[in-house]
Give the backbone structure.
Amino acid sequence: LTFLAQATTLARQRCLARLRARLPTGALIKLKGVWSVEGLLAALDSGNHSVFLNLHKACGEGGQKPLEPRVGMVASAGGIVLSEHGNPEDDRPFQGMPGVVFGEVDNLAAAYARLAAEPAARRRALGRTTRDMFLERFEPAAVLRRAGVFDLVDALLRNKSRAQRAKQRDAQGAPCVDAPAARPGGGNATERQQAPHARDGDTTAPLEATALLPRGLIAAACLVSFAAGAFAAVA
């Protein structure tokens, strides 16, 4: 059972002592200097590390416990991670991944014993399944879509377009509601052109966020911002 972080807080030191007392002698080891997926892959390839431990800075205490980025790093590298429970909204995206196990500190030793009893090939298979599920579930565009980012940007662009049209009407002294003259064929040319896009009485084709802002660019910016803040919080 490999602990990646530093035991810099008294709370973590106490939790590690409780776990060590419940584990076989020498089962709990510390691995320093691993801060990237590449480093985790090297640790996994060495054959000496397959199950990793995550403890919060405020381990065993109440209050908010944000999930450390190392949980996602281990999952994306194909490892198995045992973690103390954190905030429910942080733990929820990992539900169903066989290689991510949450529990109270005193129950993690039993979870490790069950994994240690499995053949090494079985643990590697669990890690691969976890990696595949993580990469699919946390694919940048999927994350942003679930968060409603694209819908929000689309709505903002539609509102901006309406405001621009209203400003143009005011500048031209036109009435608030345009009424283009009818033409043969039913309706008018403007209505026939815009009808496929009509929504909720708005006959103007909305500007789509994806047409103006590349999704890859949005995803990259969000992920860079997240990574910068997240890794700064890791001890």
Notes: The chain has a mean pLDDT of 75. Residues 149-172 form the longest helix (24 residues). DSSP finds eleven helices and five strands in the chain. The first strand starts at residue 2 and ends at 3.
